[in-house]
Amino acid sequence: MEVIGIDLGTTYSAVAALAADGRPELLVNRDGERLTPSVVLFESPTGVLVGTLARRSAASRPGDCVQFVKRRMGEAAAVHVDADGRGYRAEEVSALLLRRLAEDAATALGRPVRDVVITVPAYFDDARRTATRDAGRLAGLTVHRLVNEPTAAAVGYGTHSGQDGVFFVYDLGGGTFDATVLRVVDGDYEVIATDGDRHLGGCDFDNLLIGYLATRIIEQGGPDVTRDPVLSAELRERCETAKIRLSTADTASVRLTVRDRTYSFQVSRSEFEDLSAGLLYRTELLLESVMDEAQLSWRDVDRVLLVGGCTRMPMVRDLISRLTHRVPEPGVHPDEAVALGAAVIAGSLTAPRPTVTVTDVTSQALGTIALDADTGQLTNFVIIPRNSPVPCRYEETFVTVQPRQSRLHASVTEGEDSDPEHVAVLHRSVLALPPGLPDEAPIRVVMSYDVDGVAHVETIDATHDRPLGAVALDRPANLDGDRLAASEAALAHLGVR
Ligand code: AMP
Fold it and tell me: How many CB atoms lie within 10 A of CB 162?
């Protein structure tokens, strides 16, 4: 069995496999490209178009196009409703992308592709990881591992360069930001700390430029183009092009024709940098907080790796050199490093002896809400702290609070705050307790993260050492078994080209 690596990105996706000499290689898609735009165009009730051709249609047919679907992973709401009124969830649209990526990989490799490793942002929580796994299944793939993107990038760079030491990965992609510190020793990749922001990426920089120019059009007596889907899709495309141009040029021009009048603007790099200073500052705060968590100073960092298309912006490099006094490693391809690393990890999973070992950490604390005996307040108790190495299993014992207590309010939370109002509640249920328990009967709550960072929870009556019914994480944001099977059958009828 040969496993390939897939970087399922917000704006672009890439697929890599190990070549005969053991080096990872990007596979070209049917359009001859190494990167496939993560865009799905619903063409008809029976088929979708994926990739560059779909992306070209984004401006003229915004209502049929789904972009940035990764940002919606783990949400229950439909991200697209087709002409027949069928709603598609984020994992279903991602499945269509994955199917196309796998079909193209099969063509490139000359053999069927079924076994994959998929990368996810490090901060992806349980629901988003489960949705990614489900997307793989809906695409007919066997997902052997979900790997954190910054970890994959570090593995790609580390195996290629043979370098060891403390790596800092700054990953600013199309829709997301991740910061990760790892210790690398002899093919061992041990993540020390990681953090990220699900709503901080290239499209947010584009949005700032869109807002800025849309306001200038209004100032010049024009309409609000952001209210028109076709015009705003056109403006988005022009603004992204201008942003990219500003990485190498001092100025970029943006033109937009609205009702026979052409608006033309020159944007300078410094104007753009002023506009986006707030976004960049958000990445700086996250960098500092990750270093604090890792209990390291910048002096301890040996190498800085920049990953994600947006790290080509000069202001990102300036920020890195100001903070770290290091030059980012050359030889890290911002768009390809993640997929290449995923292919190395994928290859290692099936090698007779693993070539790399990866110890990742959980980006989210997991806990439960219980009454704090000292304060009498409902409190969130963290059971698995953030940045714990995965897989992991932690347990905590709580006690019943009333004599002859017959029911227990069980909950699973994500987040570190002790105030239940400030954490996400993944699960709430009421469990029946067996009769005859002593006062202050001990109840064990066992929480674990598997190697993919997916959470599992058990509750045990410690008096009799018996499970108290399953605290199956019902994951309202994910598809249950029946809906997954139905969706699999429905998607199988859609042609992907
Ligand atoms: P990724 O998700 O890593 O593929 O990153 C894609 C994002 O990087 C998109 O928002 C692109 O607009 C952005 N990007 C790609 N190239 C450049 C560049 N030269 N300068 C600025 N942003 C870029």
Answer: 8
